[in-house]
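go over whats below:
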Amino acid sequence: MALSPARVFAALNAVRPPDQAFPVMEKAVVLGGSVAGLLAARVLADHAECVVVIDRDDLHVTGGRPGVPQGTQLHALLPGGFLQLERLFPGFRDQALAQGAVEAPPAARRSYLDGRLKVVVPDDADSLAGSRPLLEGLIRQQVLRLPNVKTVTARATGLVFDGGVATGVRYDVGGASGVESADLVVDAMGRSSRLSDWLEQGGWDRPAMRRMTVHLNYATALFRRRETNPDLTVVLALNSPRLSSEVAGAAFFAIEDGRWMAMMAGYGDNRPGRTAEDFVRRLRDQFPPEFGEVAGSELLGDVQTYRHADSRRRDFHALARFPAGLVSVGDAVASFNPVYGQGITSAAMQAACLSAYLRSKPDLGVPARHFLDLQRVVVDAAWSTSTSADLALPHVDGPYPRGYRFSSWVSRQIVAATVTDVTTARRFNDVVSMRQHPSSLATPGAVLGALRANRRAR
């Protein structure tokens, strides 16, 4: 029987770690110390006697990781992801604040669309603002404190199969080879995951890969923050593709160490903010006054740029044959246009999928179809949200899903209504933050409410 996506979302958003250890295996191996890998390790620690995380970087070194080239860019922790992290790591909020993160309650967040201030504050969920190294570092600290989690600094080179089961991982360290046996292997190797190659080498089919070419260009800069407790900690200003073909939007967050982190984005050949002069000028001239105030502060260091060529999705769930003892999570499954800020929250939701799967007392000797079914609901939701928005970009040329023209019209109506209508804005925020499934925006009541709000606004 097909799973109801809305019910799956509701159940995953209610998942909490078990009150006591619930072992179903002796050892699990996680490939990659990314946020997705760390969150998977946290869940596995409740269900395995030993969890081994293999990564090329030394995970015990503090600060940003070389394996995260986008770590210098602005990252959003959506309210849905924040709630998941607080459940996995009770006290996460207080510890993050102690390390310099800044609270971002609804009243401290401001949003613009095409220069129009959204006059409503419809959300009731708190979040945090901080740099990627701070947030990821705190997650890493929490996971590595667990007594049954250990790390191996090495490069994973392949899988070990016994019939239809993945039973271990091959790795190289310092020129020497080794094998780590496992009852369950979790691929968290990110966008460049080599799992598809390893499956093919082992006689399995490769999953189909979908791509959505977006050619997103990021530029991020740090400014000194004068206010210790600013009234606004998160400000967003997005431009509709039909109104601006040059700058997709900008944002700034209050982060640790008394700094503002400001970001600007463009698509295709548009690379706004590559120099400090251009960055500051555009913030002052092309965005609301709050951005000019930040740009008037002292610039700290150089402008950091990053290019995201495409969104990618590997359809492991669609494979007719898939090894037992193996799952994939995070960007290794799907990486989305980062401008929507779904990465960390999607990883946290997939960790909830893993928790629900392991608490079902699964037979690890058969493929993890229940996990794949749950994960597909999460990935479908994030993928449809981001790619439907990307298809509105003038330089993106499909593929367009069936009914796209009508669905895009509905989406435009809903987005426009978020500027003035509290009910529509709350529904929209719940979907964007992954607390509700996108189907909640497609009901007749939601669409009619948006249409009425837009008519009143006109």
Residues 369-390 form the longest helix (22 residues). The radius of gyration is 22 Å. The mean pLDDT is 91.
